[in-house]
Amino acid sequence: MTDVLGGRKRSDYCGELSLEDKGRQVSLMGWVQRRRDHGGVIFIDLRDRSGLVQVVFNPEIDSTAFKEADRLRTEYVVYVRGTVRNRPEGNINPDLSTGEIEIKAEDAAVLNEAETPPLQIKENLEVGEDLRLKYRYLDLRRPKMQDIIKLRHRVNKVTRDYLDEEGFYEIETPILTRSTPEGARDYLVPSRVNEGEFYALPQSPQLFKQILMVGGMEKYFQIARCFRDEDLRANRQPEFTQIDIEMSFVNRDHIFKISENLIKKIFALVEIEVPETIPIMSYSQALKEYGTDSPDLRFGMKLKDISDIVAESEFNVFRKVIENGGQVKGIKVRGGAEVSRSKIDEYTDFAADYGAKGLAWIAYKGGDVSSPITKFLSENELSGIQNKMKADEGDLLLFVADSPKITANVLGNLRLKIARERDLIPAEENKFVWIVDFPLLEYDEQNKRYVPLHHPFTSPVKEDIPLLEENPEQVKANAYDLVLNGEELGGGSIRINDKELQNRVFQALGIDKEEAREKFGFLMEAFKYGAPPHGGIAFGLDRIIMLLSGTDSIRDVIAFPKTQRGTCLLTGAPAEVSRAQLEELNINLNVDSKDKN
RNA sequence: GGGGGAGUAGCGUAGCUGGUUCAACGCGCCGGCCUGUCACGCCGGAGAGCGCGGGUUCGAAUCCCGUCUCCCUCGCCA
């Protein structure tokens, strides 16, 4: 067997060399970032994952090496041996971390040639993302991608180290498992051995981690891949990763403590400070004031309810909505009175995207009140509104009248949009908050039944348990989300560990005994044999990496991500399979094989 | 399922109110020159027929229809 390196051995990484290494002979291996041929002297920027260093080839130093350098092209893989020396006076490159030194080449060898790459390996690349994904291995050579992948590794490492210190076991759970009804659409995998039956890929290891608690593992974690067959977004992939945690014999505060410590260690990697204790806000307050359960607390512009002021109003739009159980809420855009009508039209369209039927506005401009709705409002109502909204000259008020859900959704998103537009968000600030006291369940208008807000194993808070049958909507869950700057980092709950209580929750959800046994029988069975009190949490690893690295696409934090249609541009997945494979699985397709051009 | 944006040399774009810009500019690439550059410089060169299919027209990147792909987004999804 021949040694592909010909006995050569790397001694150093390019980017780690400095003046301290002056005079040392080093052996480097990497890629040619760039070649500058001056006829009599050739410079090479040599790149490995640590960075760049300049190599000088001079025929007076070594003519063989010089000749080899003549062959070099972009992205050739090369070996260079030479001496570290400081650069001549006036030739220092302050933009390069190794800019004070260079390598005087004494030997060089091409380890592999490379075709001209379809995209240039440089920091400020201007390339379509589809091309980056197709040639991901080239994209990954870019320093920015290298940094992100490295950061991701370090987050994994910190997570493992910390949780290990705290006595957690890292336990793998099945990828091939069974489909469970709630939540997202499952990815299915046909079973060859069991004709007509399917595995599902896990949406999360939820059931397994609870069963591990019954199994006496007490403290479990996993950096777990999860799969959901739903439409993609800038921050959503069909397979994504969670830091999944479950503990026995704990209450909410224990989970908070572990979570806060973990988040502290993770964010320390990018020198973001996490407060000693993270403040807590109720779900109802978050929804009331921010219109969302993941509020961005870095700025104000809170939602204000003016329903009581306009309940009896002449203005039908407001009054009728309130009569029908809706509400009228608004936000104040400080200094927003000067915005153009077309801007307000834009806000109206934006509101419509989130389901609003309209957007009412009042502008306090030039000592006057300008608004299409004031003529329907009494003096009292107008002053009431101005008081409630604390509106001053120059302010713009925007109102939505609709069901509480739509009102919150519209204004919550409008608040964010306007804040971003008007640059009201202090970028340097970080506001962590725990959101607690979620409703246990929610009425699903579409299917006319209650569905769990979190999942069906979430424990109700003790005081509300008696309400389960009479007033299920009033029941609060012992669930919590950790939110940073309007982004949900993770969420979890204390679980039900009592069979009776679990049955009552199932009942409230309209899941009868039969169905419960069918779907979760194994969990119910497990709970018969001494299930400890337990609870846990799961953090969205990809989104955390996005925040830490300041990227706005989840694709940038995953080595091999999928496109919006769930395809992999690198491998061409998903792809058709052979007839023989399908036959073995007893699968008949009722689609024509597609012809792509 | 709905709304919006994009698809022109290897890459990023311009041209898109149709015909002496039916293809240009920058980067990259190839060749030559250059012993201190580092977005090297200078000289020369190759490379696309405008995502794909169809139509309108004397004539289409430029207009129309269909279709594929990528991105953002509502719904969906924690």
Characterise the protein shown here.
By secondary structure, the protein is α+β, with helices and mostly antiparallel strands. It folds into three domains: 99 residues, Nucleic acid-binding proteins (OB fold (Dihydrolipoamide Acetyltransferase, E2P), Beta Barrel), CATH 2.40.50.140; 261 residues, BirA Bifunctional Protein, domain 2 (2-Layer Sandwich), CATH 3.30.930.10; 127 residues, GAD-like domain (Gyrase A, domain 2, 2-Layer Sandwich), CATH 3.30.1360.30. The chain is 28% helix and 23% strand. It contains 16 helices and 22 strands. The strands form five sheets. An eight-stranded mixed sheet has the order 6-9-10-22-21-20-17-11, with helices on both faces. A five-stranded mixed barrel has the order 1-2-3-5-4. Strands 12-13-16-14-15 form a five-stranded antiparallel sheet. Strand 7 and strand 8 form a beta hairpin. The C terminus is likely disordered. The chain binds one RNA strand of 78 nucleotides through strand 1, strand 2, strand 3, helix 2 and strand 21.
